[in-house]
Amino acid sequence: LRICRVQPDVPALDKAFDYSIPDALAPAVRVGTIVRVSLHGRRVRGWVIALDVAASGDPSKLLPIAKVVGSGPPAELIDLATWASWRWAGPVVSFLRAASPPNAVRDLAPPASLATGSPAVRVLAWPPAADRRELVAQRIAPRGSTLIVSADGARFGSLLRHLEREGHRVLVIRADCSAADKTRAWSRAREGNCVVLGGRSAVWTPVPDLAAVIVLDEGDEALQEESAPTWNGRDVAAERARRNGAELTLVGVVPSLEAEALGGRAERPDRSTERHGWPGVEVVDLREAPPGRGLLTDELARAVRRSVDAGERAVCMLNRKGRARLLVCAACGSPATCERCGAAVAEDEERRLACAHCGMTRPPVCVSCHGARFKALRPGVRKLRDGLAAMFPKVEVAHVDAEVGEVPEALVLVGTEAVLHRVQGPIGLVAFLDLDQELLAPRYRASEQALALVARGARRTGTNGRLLLQTRLPEHAVVQTALRADPSILPELERRQRRELGYPPFGGLAELVGVAPAVDAAVEQLRASGIDVLGPAPRGERLQALARSDDLPTLLDALADAGPPARALGRLRIAVDPPRV
Ligand SMILES: [Zn+2]
Ligand SMILES: [Zn+2]
């Protein structure tokens, strides 16, 4: 009697069970095969995750597999899913789903895996608006398959055409493909010898002959899953490349510290490529703007006018979600920031400046001019569209946010960062009306995220367009990176701050949010394993805690122990490497 272990497609359960294999089904059952089984009286889908296992009880009492549905992930991706479930402290089912075709695939004979690549990791800094088609083409493996993962689906089209002209067989896997198209691509990928182009889910494509992996925009938040488990496409790609001995190339405008930890300091192109890979960048120092004008500066008016006169679209960006009141020095206009982590600070009851992010406090003295008086800025965002409309009475000025269905045809658009994702067609100017809201956000990845946003703007305008950055921190590393087209500035700052705080990649970090009994139980167990925990503190109806350790595996092992019993007590979301903490 053959016995196999089946992982039912029930994330809340996250446990595997043994079943017997009826003789009639035996030829079709392999590791990865998708089957139907009975579980507590219900018929559920599941994956065969191991064959010929030793039964824990009486084998004749095991239920048989009810049905073979079709092919599933190859054995190596089952192993990768198991690793990912540890790496992001989530159910393995989430990853098995990502690695499976949406519809049934009946051809049941996948080719054997072939190792074809040479293991190596390269980290490359590449300016945002520079053409990267050649860069990608050069890194495609001569034999075997290559996975290309990119956060920016808007540029798949031109890359696809380029690679096809070069004679590659390219499969595109996008989130918005139909289930039938995704299934077809999944099935064809199993034949190997192809190039797969897609978003983060492309890392789970079942090519049998992986030889190279290229991750573009490697630090972009879009490569990380928002809901738990918060897995990152770059990190899964890196692990898969390592296991397959495939060459890994990580490309970013400013490669992240995580990329650096995987492959060392970034290589850079020549200065001319760097310089020409950015649009024209203009920095407006808001400290010098005449009082009463707010964010509607003369420089902004000139830049919008220039764009409109050329018949090109101008996009003015302002993030309104979670906008904080900013304290600025009454004498010199510099914002009050934390010396330790760079976030905005606020006055506490004892009239000291306190950082809500890292907890540091200091006397209320301006670090730039030693002034001791501060004023609170009220951004007045509602009047912004009207103010712009008044500046340009003959031009249509429209407002775009997540609620606006269709992006209007207007030449001037005002909106949140969603605009950059949604506007089709060329853009002449991207203006960040108040970049400090991004630079000073109380999050450890604030600088990285601000730069990613600026880079996205740069990609949208292209090298012939313009970027306008309005800030009270013109010397900030993010602003200087864009202005000088120099990818070495930001990592210096990031390394110092993250090391000081023990944040990734210099330590492990996880956020726990859930109902009180579950969070309390998890926190108690984590503390017993020697993990630092901040909290729990109330967040709305729930509790929130932050767990940190000096190295990531220690934290992950502790979470693997603490997670399941705590989850049995109620809802608990664990976000490893939380992007917005
Ligand atoms: Zn000052
Ligand atoms: Zn701080």
SSE blueprint and pairings:
Elements: E1 3-8, E2 17-20, E3 34-39, E4 42-51, E5 67-70, H1 75-87, H2 92-98, E6 120-125, H3 133-138, E7 145-150, H4 156-165, E8 170-173, H5 179-189, E9 195-198, E10 210-216, H6 233-244, E11 247-252, H7 257-263, H8 271-276, E12 280-285, H9 298-309, E13 314-317, E14 326-329, E15 345-347, E16 353-355, E17 361-362, E18 374-377, H10 382-391, E19 397-400, E20 412-415, H11 418-422, E21 429-432, H12 436-439, H13 446-461, E22 466-471, H14 477-484, H15 489-501, E23 508-514, H16 516-528, E24 532-539, E25 542-549, H17 552-567, E26 572-576
Parallel strand pairs: 6-11, 7-9, 7-10, 8-9, 10-11, 12-22, 13-20, 13-21, 19-20, 21-22
Antiparallel strand pairs: 1-2, 1-4, 3-4, 3-5, 14-18, 15-16, 16-17, 23-25, 23-26, 24-25
Helix pairs in contact: 1-2, 13-14, 16-17
One zinc ion is lined by residues 329, 331-332, 334, 366, 368-369, 371.
Task: Give a written overview of the molecule.
45% of the residues are buried. This protein is α/β, with parallel strands linked by helices. The model has no long low-confidence stretch (mean pLDDT 91). α1 (75-87) crosses α2 and α13 packs parallel to α14. The longest helix is centred in the last third of the chain and has 16 residues, at 446-461. A hairpin with a 2-residue loop joins β24 and β25. Helix content is 29%, strand content 23%. The strands form six sheets. The chain has a six-stranded parallel beta sheet, with helices on both faces. It has a six-stranded parallel beta sheet with strand order 12-22-21-13-20-19, sandwiched between helices. The chain contains 17 helices and 26 strands. It binds zinc ion (ZN) (2 copies). One zinc ion binds next to loops.
